[in-house]
Amino acid sequence: MSVGGKVRVGKKADLLSCLQLEEMQTTSTPVVEAIFLDGAAVVQMLNPGTANTFQEYADLVFIPYVTSQLQTADRVDIVWDVYIPNSLKKTTRQKRGQGVHRQVSPTTMI
What we know:
This protein is α+β, with helices and mostly antiparallel strands. The protein is built from three helices and four strands, in the order βββααβα. Strands 1-2 form a two-stranded antiparallel sheet. Strands 3-4 form a two-stranded parallel sheet. β1 and β2 (6-7) form a beta hairpin. The chain is flat, with a radius of gyration of 19 Å.
């Protein structure tokens, strides 16, 4: 992960050459104990539709999607980005800059 004490940067696609892709065929969705969702990816994936505020988005889109995942799992965990000190993610963010921070509340317009 580092070279000479400096964090090595690269692309996720570079890892593909190390992985052997195996084709799996399944006829049905397996019932599993837990599903882990990347919260930021789910938010980007789901279309807000007619929701105008974050509360409406949560009630009409996000929560129903997460709840639907319970049809094939006993438990759903949502993981959000955390920028831990001295981590690759924190180092990359520092190189890119901090950007704009916004306070979001239930009534904030999307």
